[in-house]
Amino acid sequence: MGKQINYWLGYEEFLQIAQKALDCGCVIIKPVSGKLVYGQALDIVTEKEHRYYFYVPEAGELSGKTIPFEKEDSINGYTAEGNTVIHVGFSFRNDEKKELIRNRLFVISGYYDSDGEYVSRPECVTKTYNRLVRVVKRIAPYIELTDTYVSVKEEDYLQEKEWKHKEYISPEFLDLKLSQNFRLRV
To answer: Does residue 42 fall inside a structural domain?
Structure first.
């Protein structure tokens, strides 16, 4: 379990979130080919990589390890190291398929240690997460969209139905959806 906000944001909008994370004292971690790359400047964020971690040093060491790790490693989810990071990324735009792939800002609620004791997420991670959520909400307004789908329920099988849903989506991606019929994919 944890907290998350799902959104459709492009690279340029994501840079605003990454800058806010840096302003909050985070270290940006980028997984690349099985290794973790660390940075304290925006230049670590590239259009090629869509998945990142924002490490909150105030929350403690990553599993008793100092960064950068000495060997190839990854950040595991529901562990002490997962309790010190915010999982984040930006949406992938597939022009060929006319699809926009959703991404999110996510933190775990805590984990169980080796003694079976529950360790809650540090308050400093929650505060940083909440600051980043405010940036997301500013650059990707929450709007209601209406899409259609074909029903597979027995009573209205193969009938076209409307589906109303609310999403956080940047103006650029909203325009792609409305004017060029891009699909939103999770």
So the answer is: yes
What CATH number is attached to the domain comprising 26? Answer: 3.30.530
| Strand intervals (E) in the chain | 2-7, 27-32, 35-39, 51-55, 85-89, 92-94, 99-101, 103-108, 110-112, 118-120, 142-150, 160-168, 183-185
- What is the tens place of the pLDDT at every residue in 91-107? 999 999 999 999 999 99
- Residue range of the domain that includes 135: 2-139
Task: Return phi, psi of residue 62, to 5°.
Answer: -80, 95
CA distance 81 to 74: 10
Q: How many independent structural domains does the chain possess?
A: 1
Q: Quick check: is 75 in a domain? A: yes
CA dist., res. 95 & res. 9, Å (int): 15
- What does pTM read for this prediction? 0.86
Q: What are phi and psi of 132, to 5 degrees?
A: -70, -35
Would you list the DSSP string of 93-122? EETTTTEEE-EEEEEE-EEE-TTS-EEEPP
- Residue 148: the pLDDT is 75
